[in-house]
Amino acid sequence: MSTFKRAFAVCLCVFSLMGLQWVNAMQGVMVHNVKARATFAMATTAAVYFTVMNHSDKAVTLTGVSVDESIAADAQLHTTVMDGDMMKMRQITDGIDVAPGAMVEFKSGSYHVMLMGLVKPLVEGASFDLTLTFANQPSMTTTVTVGAGAGEHSHHHHE
């Protein structure tokens, strides 16, 4: 086999494998726009926001989240609900389903991750890892980027 044909065959194999990895990535779960807001010096809690996209052909269920103990004592899935005229946050213990081909946005006033027992303030420009645990697929770790701090309107009541 000539050098040219051998090189062509190797390239073809490499591109084929790259294509398979791309297809597999497109069929799984992807997490985008993972961010948290900077906190003030004495803050004990913070929120993390992101979007989960399910490119698979079956529903997936996000059952938990975790961060390194150097960031916070605990990380929990939460949602925001109206209780009378007060907005309150509640921990989600039964998971969050993401339908096939759908996405779920974690944002202020909706689903979010609460970091409880912050070890130190979240500083703009910093980053840390967040691990998402699913009931029916492998866990995944993503990087949280800390952006500008929250305004005064962002305080909510936790129970």
Automatic annotation (TrEMBL):
UniProt key word Signal: yes
Keyword Thylakoid (UniProt): no
Pfam family, one: PCuAC
Keywords: Signal
Secretion signal span: 1-25
Protein known as: Copper(I)-binding protein
